[in-house]
Design brief:
Elements (H helix, E strand, L loop, with lengths): L1 H16 L12 E5 L10 E2 L2 E2 L12 E4 L2 E4 L4 E9 L8 E9 L2 E9 L7 E8 L8 E13 L5 E14 L1
Amino acid sequence: MRVRLVLAAAALLTAAVAPLAHAGGADGHHTADRPTGSHLRDSHLRDGHLRDGHFTDSHFTDGLFVDAYGTVADDSTVTLSGTYRCLDDSAGPVFVSSTLVQGDRSTGIGGTRAVCDGHLHTWTNSSVVKDPAYRPGAARVEATLMQLSGTGLPLPRFLATEKADVELR
């Protein structure tokens, strides 16, 4: 029973704190806020550092990037994706959460369990969003790499955040 309670609390906490995680690195962790058109691709990462100098081998911690576009299916399923890298999940599970903002609307779009082995991985989050549905066009994604840790009720620790302008197709 206690395990189920902790898992349920972790799932609810993940969904509830994703929008709060975008306060922007107040705890000293990497926060990137790139302008439109500067989205990173897997090819930007070479030998553990970014070509544009955001990270180097000796200074790399955890990183999170959002792809330049997302999709909206006919059934109102929104899919967002990107790339992440985290180093250590020994203190607790790590998740990639995402929030989609279009106009005055903001909705959490799924969550993905992260593999923290120091390697580059892709993430994809999907959710059916209706009433009103998102539309193709300009939007903003706020993604968070978050670790749950502690005994009892797990507490979130924000490892990295990313805010990026995207095109919904």
